[in-house]
Amino acid sequence: MSITYRGETFSGYNKPKRTPNHPTKSHVVLAKEGSTIKMIRFGEQGAKTAGKPKAGESAKMKAKRKSFKARHGKNIARGKLSAAYWADKVKW
Description:
alpha+beta
């Protein structure tokens, strides 16, 4: 199932994809919550994010992840229609 929305093709709702050719944002997702549909671009292009937790991860990366979640906690809690939710899920 392929969805085209505002000139962008998505494999489905709530499935983020990389956007390597976008000048500022690294990912895009067609978010759907209830009957509301919204295209959300998120993540800084080329940012060195912590990624998913790994065994033997450095203390610096743990602190980086913790700091991001503390700083954006309120926006992450807003749910699928916020860029912070997707950045937390995909990049952190």
